[in-house]
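User: Fold this; tokens only.

Assistant: Input:
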Amino acid sequence: MKPIRVVFAGDSITGWSDLSKYLKFSHIIECMIEARWGAGKAVVLNRGIGGNTTADLLARLPADVLDTKPDIVVLLIGGNDAGQKMPRATTAANLNRILTQLRAVCPRVLLLQYHLLPRPEAPEKAWSHLDDNNDLIAAAAKEHGCPVLGMAPVMRAAVDDTVPA
């Protein structure tokens, strides 16, 4: 049986320029898949690039994601659009174009919503804009029949050392 191909696409929260220096959630999922089903049962590809907006991902989508022939795509994108003050209509249109292209080749797409990244040492510098487009992510997911997962409760629980409801 051929391994399932899982592609994580998005910005710096998904990936970084040197993934060997940072453990990302794609690595955790890969470890969980191997622990559950055994080594070689899945190929997990991280296609996150720091600073990417929806327009950046849209431009690289064919080569970085679609050409990998994914079985599952996990998508986290749109936070940098808010940080760069892109018009929300542009972000919404880009999300819809991304999902239209993804769904044409991949039946299973999971969208993630942002959580705020607190900076305890400097709360005034927190990336408070990240979740500004979460409503657009939810709307695009609904329009394209994709599940959406808000990461805020899970991340808050990790920080608070509690279990989410």
